[in-house]
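User: For my dataset I need records formatted as: sequence, then structure tokens, nothing else. Please produce one.
Assistant:
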Amino acid sequence: MMRYSIRGPHKGPALLATAVALATVAACSGGSPSGSGSSSSGTAPGASASSAPTSAAPSPTPTPTRSYPLSTAPRTIPAVRDHEAARGPGWKPAAPAGVVVAANSPGLADEGRLLAGELGIPYRGTAAAGPGDVELALGGTGARESYTLTVRDGRVRITGPDEAGVFYGTRTLKQSVKGTGAMPEGVVTDAPAKPQRGLNVDIARKFFTAGWIEDRLREMADLKLNQFGLHFSDDQGFRIASDSHPEIVSAQHLSKAEVRRILALAQTLHITVVPEIDSPGHLGAVLRAHPDLQLRNVQGVPRQGAIDISKPASAAIVDDLLREYSQLFPGGWFHVGADEYQALTVRSPSASYPQLAAAARQKYGAQAGVQDLAEGWLNDRAAVVRTAGKTAKAWNDGFFRGGVVTADQGIEVEYWTGKEIGARPPAEYLAEGRKVVNLNDEYLYYVLGEPNDFTYPTGRRIYEQWTPRVLRGTTPVAARYDAQILGGRFAVWCDLAGAQTPAQVAAGIRMPLTATAQKLWDARTPTLTWDQFRTLAPQVRG
């Protein structure tokens, strides 16, 4: 290190100031002279040129640069599965930033326009990415709905093998900016644990407007949920206009134009709407217009909501409706119900409903019973929607053991309860190789008015205790079945319709649905505590 001599009459503060100034010069020069033979070379005052040390050729003074700490993962719900940290300023939506779509990805225009509007920056269409831009592009070989989000050199690039994945990348960017004003430097690699993630709403018992449904779809999209179950037919009402059977439609209902508007929004948000017409139970609204089809026991007593499946006209009207709404709803699933058929809740179905027993024997042989007739009904309805290009879904209590007729293997089991007498545990369905969707009523059922010992579910309980493998009660099934569990939906049921207003329902399900979204995207134990998660939610959600 060069040694500096302080000469002359410098004392006190003046001496200290001179020493600090010279030390600063040494520190800034790294201890090396920036020149030779001049007073700026670092030679002590009064020293001759011949006394200065010799050195190699001078190097340029380095330009100061900013230093950044390693970035941390963006704060989003659901949390991203992997973030590769980097040093850099991250990205903020400021001029001259805009949203552009890669040349090979014109199908991402809707995603680009939506994101630009949300971030308050221009959408420039198909163009090369410039300084500060967000670029959306299709590409890569990851799983469906996966994406990679890269923040580097002041730009953002979101890529994925399909449009849904790129869309989910835009949700991550939107949430991070909403919560912190920026997207951190680095690379996010993300994909969902389960392919089916959603919300189920009963609009049959309680009417919800198209606007209310559209608001839920927007909330779902920001949570990366992709499936909306629409239960629109039950004892209390039939809530979508019908061309084939207008006589069954309730006064309060959605027009087909409103349904198409809902479907158009859902499509832009990568949400599939799954319609449900539940049969052979829960058909009270249909049967009010067709009382001759109502199931009656041997004493002639009608059973609420149950249709007589021994009558060909019963199948005809239900199949008319399945075909009509299969045309209206473009998604790949149709829910055909099959739960709580009243003929099977008595001690001796064959004695109580001899017409059903006779029809079973006639169709399936001498050993067949009422259970087999009901199972055959399920298979026949599934065949109708399959012809329309749909996969059938049905509630778990419509799948029976030990009969002559077995439920078709291609029907997805929607497991909701194991509380009935004789209910089959989830492992039975899984051991048969069936695909199962989780709607566990212990955690995921929001039943208005809390009848039948139901209590409103809490986000905390879902967040801390539930996973997709917890199909019944509180105990998970074996890990070997995980791949057969396709996902789950949080469900709103309106048994006591007047117990809450639509606004109260929306507020009541907000945190439970948020927690469900986290656990369906990533079933592992979350890194945030519940209190941290609850605090984060309003910061990043729309």
